[in-house]
Design goal:
Layout: E1 3-6, E2 9-12, H1 22-29, H2 49-66, E3 78-83, E4 88-93, E5 103-105, E6 108-111, H3 113-122, E7 125-129, E8 132-133, H4 136-144, H5 150-163, E9 167-170, H6 183-196, H7 202-205, H8 208-225, H9 232-236, H10 261-266, H11 272-277, H12 280-289, E10 315-320, E11 336-340, H13 350-357, E12 364-369, E13 375-380
Parallel strand pairs: 3-7, 11-12
Antiparallel strand pairs: 1-2, 3-4, 4-6, 5-6, 7-8, 9-10, 10-11, 12-13
Helix pairs in contact: 3-4, 3-5, 6-8
């Protein structure tokens, strides 16, 4: 019987067909490697002999873990291609259960970047990019980008929650009721319909603001296309900024010049601004300026309340439990709403959490990812 060496391990191969036996397949497919625990935190300085010895042992453990032979069933992987423009993975061939992953659009199944990366790590997906198979190392750069990016943080949270047994799906904000729709929502819906040919949702059409906003936008459109202005006098009048060039008579009695220029301009009748105010063009400009509708901006004190708005806090994922019978076609309310804090951001106070909780019924799970990629999560129940 012939033998073949696989990474310093002897595997028997049958001479007739060259395939492994069933016992050998099971042994190599479910091979496990238990790395040694790191122990307590090291306190030695960099470059010392104990630190170098610790790094050498860690590299040997990693090399031994990677050299363990593994057997995977290639037919058990789904096939997808990465769409660089839409930043999604289009699934060409499904294998296994995909009811908790991706979303359907026009009869096609698409995976989010974090879902594709997660299935790649599990060995359930073969991702191709311009005809080439993407490795896991390449997928980290292609799908997630930099380590400090928001995508990388979202994937760490998605992977940790999925491995913990939760069903993690992208959070889709619920549609507002006609009573909750504002005039700004109507304006954006009409702009999307005009520019992007997107139909106006029904809950916006039934809003009391919709008819008023639509009529106002039509009037503005007619005003722009017809090149009309509300005040025709302003367009007809020409602004003459030429100052009077007539020579002035010199004063009979010379004025004593002060020693400094500041004192010279402060004397009544000798200021340059006071002299310009006597010109005909200044009075004409002042008359036109009074016709303008001046709107006073908010002061610094007025904008203090706006800085407390939760612009950086948003719900990213929804968590569902497996035993609740989750169905993506008709999902139930989530068990938790997940908020992922931006990098180097402290946990929000109770007032900010309460503002978000007022618009959602599920408890909030606020998660922070540190620089060392450690995840901290706090669950908020606000009655």
């Amino acid at each position: 019987m012939d033998t073949k060496t696989l990474d310093s391990e002897i595997v028997e191969i049958h001479p007739k067909n060259g395939y492994l036996s069933a016992k050998e397949l099971i042994a190599h497919r479910h091979s496990e490697f238990e790395p040694q625990s790191g122990g307590l935190k090291r306190t030695q300085n960099e470059g010392t002999a104990p630190e170098l010895e610790e790094l050498r042992r860690a590299q040997e453990q990693l090399r031994a873990q990677l050299s363990v032979p593994r057997i995977e069933r290639l037919g058990g992987r789904a096939l997808a291609i990465w769409n660089d423009e839409q930043k999604v993975a289009e699934v060409l061939r499904k294998d296994g259960k995909f009811e908790n992953f991706g979303y359907s659009e026009q009869g096609r199944l698409y995976l989010e970047y974090y879902e594709a990366m997660f299935l790649l790590e599990l060995g359930r997906l073969q991702l191709e990019y311009y005809g080439s198979v993407v490795s896991i190392e390449q997928a980290y750069v292609l799908l997630l980008g930099k380590l400090e990016s928001e995508k990388y943080t979202n994937y760490l949270v998605y992977s940790a929650l999925s491995r913990a047994g939760y069903i993690v799906v992208r959070h889709i904000p619920p549609e507002k009721t006609p009573e909750e729709v504002t005039s700004a929502d109507c304006i954006w819906a009409l702009l999307k319909e005009t520019v992007g040919n997107e139909p106006v949702p029904d809950h916006i059409k039934t809003s009391p603001f919709y008819a008023v906003v639509e009529k106002r936008m039509e009037d503005i459109k007619e005003l722009i296309t017809s090149q009309k202005t509300e005040d025709s006098k302003i367009t007809k009048e020409s602004i003459d900024l030429e100052f009077d060039s007539r020579k002035r008579k010199a004063n009979e009695k010379p004025i004593e010049e002060p020693p400094s220029k500041k004192e010279k301009l402060s004397i009544a009748g000798r200021s340059l601004v006071d002299q310009l105010k006597n010109e005909m063009s200044y009075s004409k400009l002042e008359e036109i300026f009074e016709k303008f509708d001046i709107i006073q901006l908010k002061s610094v004190d007025d904008t203090k309340e706006d800085t407390t708005e939760l612009s950086s806090l948003k719900i990213t994922f929804d968590l569902h439990l497996h035993n609740e019978g989750f169905k993506k076609s008709s999902p139930k309310p989530p068990t938790f709403n997940v908020i992922i804090l931006p990098s180097q951001t402290s946990f929000p106070p109770h007032d900010e959490i309460a503002k978000i909780q007022n618009h959602h019924t599920a408890p909030l799970l606020v998660i922070s990812v540190s620089e060392s990629k450690q995840i901290q999560a706090f669950l908020y129940y606000i009655s």
